[in-house]
Specification:
Protein name: Ankyrin repeat domain-containing protein 45
CATH superfamily: Ankyrin repeat-containing domain
Organism: Sphaerodactylus townsendi
Order of helices and strands: HHHHHHHHHH
Number of strands: 0
Number of helices: 10
Strand content: under 5%
CATH topology: Serine Threonine Protein Phosphatase 5, Tetratricopeptide repeat
Shape: globular
CATH architecture: Alpha Horseshoe
CATH class: Mainly Alpha
Radius of gyration: 24 Å
Length: 185
């Protein structure tokens, strides 16, 4: 009996040591995801730009890969608040206005998670502030539901600014010589 117990203890100890050893990457490993979630903009750029990078050929595929509800890598990046990565990925043609199966956009995602800097980045990159979910909710409504007060205030400000800009553009089209306006932040 004692010998069996010692073998069991030894087996547990051996399996624990095996768990601590470096593991091979799973077949579904996405190197772009790791770089994006850790804010490694240089790593993201390297994957796309370095002809020697083994992941370069599948970078676009990895970027556009979606889960069953239609979220791609950018949604995780928004949740993590990686604004610089989003800005970097925008250079490679990602669709910042893309929606999930239920109509959620990156703006909705950033608003829900309270990622104010990410909201600012998305608005700067011209994400659709008026996009609605299947329930008719805008990003502002989502931020309000999750009590993300700073996000609500920013989205209100951004919507007002956009409406003023559109009004000025209409005035300029009607009488361009009568309008001398410059909008600043």
């Amino acid at each position: 009996m004692e010998v069996v117990e010692e073998e069991s203890a030894g087996s547990v100890e051996a399996s624990t040591l095996e768990d601590l050893e470096p593991q091979e990457e799973p077949v579904t490993f996405n190197p772009l995801l790791r770089a994006a979630l850790t804010g490694d903009t240089e790593g993201v750029q390297q994957i796309f730009d370095d002809p020697e990078d083994p992941d370069r050929e599948k970078a676009t595929e990895l970027l556009m890969e979606k889960d069953i509800v239609g979220r791609d890598l950018l949604y995780a990046t928004c949740m993590a608040g990686q604004s610089d990565v989003i800005r970097t990925l925008a250079k490679y043609g990602v669709d910042l206005k893309d929606k999930t199966a239920r109509g959620y956009t990156l703006l909705h995602c950033a608003a829900a998670w309270g990622q104010l800097e990410t909201l600012k980045t998305l608005i700067e990159l011209e994400a659709d502030i008026y996009a609605t979910t299947f329930q008719g909710e805008k990003a502002r409504d989502i931020a309000n539901r999750y009590e993300q007060t700073e996000c609500v205030e920013f989205l209100d400000w951004a919507a007002s600014k956009q409406e003023i800009q559109q009004g000025v553009e209409l005035l300029m089209k009607a009488n361009p010589e009568d309008v001398d306006v410059k909008l600043t932040d």
